[in-house]
Please model this.
Amino acid sequence: MWWWRRVEQLRHGRNDLRRREWLVKRTLFNALGRGRELQVEHCAHSCVITLPPWENPGRRWLRDMLRSRLYGRSRTMPHRKLITRLQSVAGLSQQDQVRLTRMPYKIKTLENGDYLLREGDRPTHSTVVMSGFLSRQRVISDRNQISSFYIPGDMPDLHSLHLPLMDHELCSVGSSTVASVPHAYFRDVMSESPGLTQAFWRETVIHAAIYREWVENLGARRALGRIAHLLCELATRLELVELLDNDSFDLPFTQQNVADACGLSVVHVNRTVQELRNEGLIEWEHGSVRLRDRTALEEVAEFSGYYLHALETARSPSVKARLPEKQNRA
Model:
């Protein structure tokens, strides 16, 4: 099929962005007869393609296959990581999972340091992280302070449904891919489903618990404990969305990112990471971290995953095992 070969050509980026937009519309119009409903937007390094939410099962299958070809298998279907995340903390009915598979979205690719939202913005969409990391940050007294990291499956601006003005910035740490979903969709789907309303509310409350833990981490722990706690938390959160491989995970953070998150200088971060390495607790090379002795690292960090409030499922045995002793007795 000529149009399928054209989609392959588009996927591999053999045309400049303006040419690419024209080819996308022409290709899908000829293939599906729905080209006039496509939305194509430009950003610095890519074009954003929005396919319509077709109701016909055959067309939905073809739409999803085209998305997979255009964006690559690992970057398609943002509902998958979102469902995995919500299943780990709230549980979803089959009907609610189907509702999420139908959500409309626009995919955006961000490079390191690109801003998704700036302080003072009034977003009309909420974001699902598909790959990579985002940070929530603000510049305070000439110093950048990171107050949260967001991983695949997270929705860093879900609160914008009710708090329309952004009081912080969302920035990509390394390369990342996100999907923007209209607020109107979330309002409609939550009015239809009490289960999804409860799941999103629980997710918001859990992120508030993570924020409280960060405040305590900065206020009460020394540098070694702060960085160890950050690594333990990221490993546990990535484990819940099936992105932890044998206690190893990709981490594109620079020492400046860690310094901004832990309230330390870059020099202090460098010394502390070296200490963790010398103690045989971690390996951190070329954007990849391996926890060599996870139990010992958690002892250094005084880490317990109870504040992440994960459900006790097959995906979270390590979280259950690391609950405080008094919590297990209860």
Q: What stands out?
A: The chain has 13 helices and ten strands. The first strand starts at residue 39 and ends at 42. The mean pLDDT is 80.
